[in-house]
Write a structure and sequence with these properties.
alpha/beta; TIM Barrel; eight-stranded parallel sheet; two-stranded antiparallel ribbon; 12 helices
Amino acid sequence: METNTNNLSLKIRKIGIREPVFVIAEIGINHNGDINIAKQLIDVAVKSGADAVKFQKRTIDIVYTTEELAKPRENPFGTTNGDLKRALELGQKEYEEINKYCKEKRILWFASCWDEASVDFMNQFNPVCYKIASACLTDDGLLKYTRAKGKPIILSTGMSTIEEIYHAVEVLGREDLSILHCVATYPAQNSELNLSIIKSLQEKFPDIPIGYSGHEVGLAPSLFAVVLGATIIERHITLNRSMWGSDQSASIEPQGFERLVRDIRTFEDAKGDGIKRVLESEIPIREKLRRK
């Protein structure tokens, strides 16, 4: 049975099984609050041939409780969890620079918005789509608020039951929606990835493009996801996995990300259409070697 026949329309091209895999380089918070690192990571994505970069936007005092922010946590920016969270959050000036820089580099950009105020903040930049983070999948209010912006939505499904995914899809509606299989551990072990869920989701949601957001170490599982039919691949990128930060160890360094995108495009080129035929390039060899 053919699955994922629906296409998710983005500004430059479409997403679907008959389209090239849409590759997202997730910068997230790997910029460590530094706009210059953010720009370097955008450069990595562009050089590698990614289709888009993704950031993360939160209104700290809404997403986190006062008690959570006050918890002791030694970090490069202070001694509390709040010091860390606020330092990693880019603001108006930085996102204006990101918007300008991505336009100059001709690469799409968008963000995971963890609260309604962040959705409104990002809306000023007219993003090509919105991402719903795995942590927000059960937040019906945020799902409805994001959908009301009238943009395509990409839904991550880490730490979720299939019943929760069905409910989120019911809340969001199926139009201009895609779903990413995801395991929300950083980094994820290969034995946890359960890539067969990609096929399961294709069967359960045949009208919705299914992709994969990976947090594993290495490149092969993401390529395997493409072989299994993932129409979107999202991976965290970093300048160096030894950099400070909670997501760095589950990220891909520049050379590795470039290889991943190259291998995805190689598979797409080699995949073909499944119809067995004699190629023109085979005809001289056939005439030479075949006796009948």
